[in-house]
UniProtKB/TrEMBL annotation:
Polyvalent protein metallopeptidase domain boundaries: 153-276
Protein name: Antirestriction protein ArdC
Classification via Pfam families: ArdcN, MPTase-PolyVal
Residues of the N-terminal domain: 12-127
Molecular function terms from GO: single-stranded DNA binding
Organism field: Rhodoblastus sphagnicola
Amino acid sequence: MSKFRSASVRRDHYEELTQTIIAKLESGVLPWRKPWDASKCASANSPMNPTTGRSYRGINALALAISPHTFTSGDPRWCSYKQAEGRGWQVRKGEKGTIVFFYKKLNIKGENEEDRTIPLLRAYTVFHASQIDGIPDFVLPEAAKPVIERITDVDTILRDSGVRIEIGGDRAFYRPSTDHIQMPPEQAFEDMPAWAATVIHELAHASGAKHRLDRDLTGRFGSSAYSREELRAELASLFVGNTLDLPCDVPNHASYIESWVKVLKDDKREIFRAAADANRIAEWMLSHHPDHAAGDDDQNATDDALPAQASDEALAA
């Protein structure tokens, strides 16, 4: 009986991914940041599925971005065994896949009760292109924009977001009481990509204003609420930076990393909530740029960003 129970225990994918991220953070590494100068090499977009053409979002973008396969190859392509097989490709024997998540709302009709909506959440395995034989060589879709054009993209987002920017002082921050972003002068930054990374981070905080995405921005430095908001801004900066081909390397004090470790240890679902919120923040920011404002209706119908309220009962291997 004990053997049967042991074999049937469901894997806790929340716990597995959370522990992977905690281990990296405790070693002093932000696992979602590239350990090289991205401006000096060819770049690829966010992790994507070559059989559907869709980019992975939310927690899936994060789970795949921290994989060594992504970091060492520069190839963003991931797909399932069946998807590869359907294209005539073959996952090599012995290769270990990476877990990603599928979420969809199901409408259930009852004979004697009102219709109700239940969450469907599934974990499934995908493999990186480097693990698949027969897959065509990866070709970057187009040459990267010149840096000045990428900075112009950030300017467009800032302008159309309606958030006021004030210049001056030696600190960058968003102040909810006045609903404005304070930025040091441009010459205070190492270069314009560093300026862009900082202002994107602060705009992520500004998205939380009540008349925008309405998040809790009342946390004081060192509090759990403050740590959770900083984690969301950090991940949103990653998602937007990947889309605009800009760095997201805003320096983080060691205390930030320590606080993130604490909130993740306290709640194994927190990284999922943070990634879901970060995805919404990124979509809000990118909606203010004409090239990124149009959503993918088909992808939204099978949203892998994951809702914060997704339950353990909805998760099955």
